[in-house]
Automatic annotation (TrEMBL):
It comes from Kribbella sp. HUAS MG21. Gene3D superfamilies: Glutaredoxin (3.40.30.10). GO terms for biological process: cytochrome complex assembly. PROSITE patterns: PROKAR_LIPOPROTEIN, THIOREDOXIN_1, THIOREDOXIN_2. This is TlpA disulfide reductase family protein. Residues 1-24 form the signal peptide. Residues 46-187 form the Thioredoxin domain. Pfam families: Redoxin. InterPro entries: Redoxin, Thioredoxin-like_sf, Thioredoxin_CS, Thioredoxin_domain, Thioredoxin_ResA/DsbE_sf. Its main location: other. CDD domains: TlpA_like_family (cd02966). Keywords: Cytochrome c-type biogenesis, Disulfide bond, Redox-active center, Signal, Signal-anchor, Transmembrane. It is found in: Cell envelope. GO terms for cellular component: cell envelope.
Length: 187
């Protein structure tokens, strides 16, 4: 029993340590279970890569985006929420990496747990995010990545190779330099 209480207390500490003040209030709006990652980077050799699951969804601007349409391109999939402080911190690096890599790499966001599109759209505008994001308020699209992305570890970024296989993953904030290196490895 003491061990279970200690585990629960540790999880609560991890959840609350990621934010404070207004951010904490935003996290409480349907964001139970939020756990910020530690920036752990995994890169997978070509022979060890797993196929990314099928992903199709409506973007924040009402268009349909499908992962299978991207075969032949490296794809960077970033899971984020407007309520997530580490997502706000990494946004400038994602924007810079997407601009530097240009159209040879397809960036796509997976906006999760924003209960309506307004805060997500505000985030995109505030940070000048140039790539689309699939709107996934209930996490159904995110759950397709079970085993590759923890539904509680927001943000997480995947680099998917030209064959649709997961070449790398960052759990937590990603930096521009890390992302550029992972994309180079995936090509």
């Amino acid at each position: 029993m003491r061990r279970a209480v200690a585990v629960v207390a540790g999880l609560l500490l991890a959840v609350t340590a990621c934010s404070s003040g207004q951010d904490a209030a935003q996290n409480r709006q349907g964001q139970a279970g939020f756990v910020s990652g530690n920036g752990n980077v995994s890169v997978f050799a070509a022979a060890d890569r797993e196929q990314a699951p099928a992903l199709t969804g409506e973007t924040l601007d009402g268009k349909t985006w499908t992962l299978s349409d991207q075969v032949g391109k490296v794809v960077v999939l970033n899971v984020w929420g407007s309520w997530c402080p580490p997502c706000r911190k990494e946004a400038p690096d994602l924007v810079a990496a997407s601009k530097e890599l240009g159209p040879s790499v397809q960036f796509i966001g997976l906006n999760t747990r924003d209960l309506d599109k307004a805060p997500a759209r505000k985030f995109v505008k505030e940070f000048g995010v140039p790539f689309p994001s699939i709107y996934d308020p209930n996490g159904k699209a995110l759950l397709r990545f079970r085993g590759q992305i923890s539904p509680a570890a927001i943000p997480t970024t995947l680099v998917i190779d030209k064959n649709g296989k997961v070449a790398g993953r960052v759990v937590g904030e990603v930096t521009k330099q890390t992302l550029l290196g992972m994309v180079a490895e995936a090509k």
